Amino acid sequence: MTQTTFPSRRETLAAMSGGALLTASGAQTAAATETPAPGAGTIDALVGRFMREFEVPGIGVAIVRPGQPAFVQGYGVRTLGQGAAVDARTQFAIASNSKAFLTACLALLVDEGKLGWDEPVVKYLPQFRMYDPRVTSMMTVRDLLTHRSGLPLGAGDLLQFPRTDHTAEDVLGALPYFKPARGFRAGYAYDNCLYIVAGLLLQRVSGSSWDAFVTERIFRPLGMTDAVSNPTLVRSANHAGRHARLGPPVIGMGPQRVVAADEGAVIGPAGGINVSVAEIVPWLQVQLARGALPDGRRLWSTAQSDEMWKPQTIVASGPGPTAEAPQRSVIQAYALGWGVAEYRGQRMLSHGGGLAGQITRTALLPDLGVGLVVFSNAQDEDAVSSLRYALLDHVLGAPPFDWAAFARTATAEAQAEVLKVAGTGGFIPPPGGPSLPLDRYAGRYRDPWYGDILVARRGAGLAIDFTRTPVFKSPLEPFGPDAFRTRFAPAAGEDAVVMFAVGDGAVTGVTMQPLSPLADFSFDFQDLAFTPVAGG
């Protein structure tokens, strides 16, 4: 089912604790229409139902409304089997909700006259290159942020996920090797790499790294003292764990299990912020106040608020809401770090975030002065998105709608699609096998943007090592003519089919594709093309 939510990393199928009412400390927007005051008991019941029905271990909720204290509360446990409760100060990884923070940082530089949204990127980053030299010269700062570059969906995400030693400079250097999937500005395809490049541009123009700039210019003025800009900076013990369904029968089904975080520092400006629901409140409020702080100072101008919220790229269009799907919007668009759509007759700005074992959602109804977040420590997208709509409906006093049933249906349909395509996940090998002695497949192979893999003999078979991604080490099992499949450790990431091109009794190249046709787009194995390294 189509949902008005904008993806972060993931886009494909796949008992209550104490909390508090937090008095608003940030700016609040005066709204022309007053919204009903949400009651804590009703919110508790809504959240509790979703947690029970979808087995979500922990959730944090923040809601801001004009003229009322902000509602901030944690529910459930941080990590299964450990007992520590989620509270208002429990940190979550908000993933691609971080993108709006990056665009706000750039807006500060635009206000200062140091940057122009429509200036070419090469003006600020002379080494910037795309596959097509014409696109290199035309790409603007705005283009970095609007998912209309022509890059394939998730291009280069293997430079970031799972945790890798690649740097932001590596991401910048990889761009010329990504063949476009469509024309420049010809359509929408979500990417993370260009946000990382935008973080480098921020550093070049300001003289401060992403970590330093967002901390000094956004977190500190807003009083977000515990927020951190990338996962390596997390120091608080009050941090949400990660949970995912690892099967059986296949990934995405089965009970919730604890999984490890799989992101590193490189994702910072694209998805690295960690923050609690208590500390996200002033961020929601300054957004709704269009850059104004309670004391009258401004972080950014109203003109820049308009720019950040202005639709830039059409994502989808359709007939609009129905009785069965009230969240559908006639047009969904992407702005600068925000999705833009209509919900219940109101303009809605939103974004989603998804990392291994955590899903987060943000929504603003700026014309009503309403904002909210739902942070979760489980990888159940339909449940978290639907809970966001349920909370919005409660705040708006909208007609009753069973959002939990909606999420159950969406989840069941997704699982049915998984079973239809992937069966039990066994993936029967195609006919055929190796045409060379196994020793001849061994060697070092290099892709121009990812780097090296090593294929070596291990016992009676072969093994592969993605040298830049520590968890990507696996035996290789025959999987068709001159092809092998990986079996990465559980929760390490999607498996790949590794295909060797053979000529004159030797390997001439290696390509790959995801094993599952429903693999998460961040595992962009299909964009890799390795050649043998002499003496490797």
Description of the structure:
With 536 residues, the protein is of the alpha+beta class. It folds into 2 domains: 311 residues, DD-peptidase/beta-lactamase superfamily (Beta-lactamase), CATH 3.40.710; 95 residues, Lipocalin. The chain has 13 helices and 21 strands. The strands form 4 sheets. It has a 9-stranded antiparallel beta sheet, with helices on both faces. An 8-stranded antiparallel β-barrel has the order 14-15-16-17-18-19-20-21. A hairpin with a 4-residue loop joins strand 9 and strand 10. Helix 2 runs parallel beside helix 7. It starts with 19 loop residues before the first strand and ends with a strand.
What does the secondary structure layout of this molecule look like, with pairings?
Blueprint: E1 20-22, H1 40-54, E2 58-64, E3 70-76, E4 92-93, H2 99-111, H3 121-124, H4 133-138, H5 141-144, H6 168-174, H7 193-206, H8 210-222, E5 243-245, E6 256-258, H9 268-271, E7 274-275, H10 277-288, H11 302-309, E8 313-317, E9 331-334, E10 339-343, E11 346-355, E12 358-365, E13 370-376, H12 381-396, H13 403-422, E14 443-447, E15 451-458, E16 461-466, E17 473-478, E18 483-486, E19 496-503, E20 506-514, E21 529-532
Antiparallel strand pairs: 1-3, 2-3, 2-13, 4-7, 5-6, 8-9, 9-10, 10-11, 11-12, 12-13, 14-15, 14-21, 15-16, 16-17, 17-18, 18-19, 19-20, 20-21
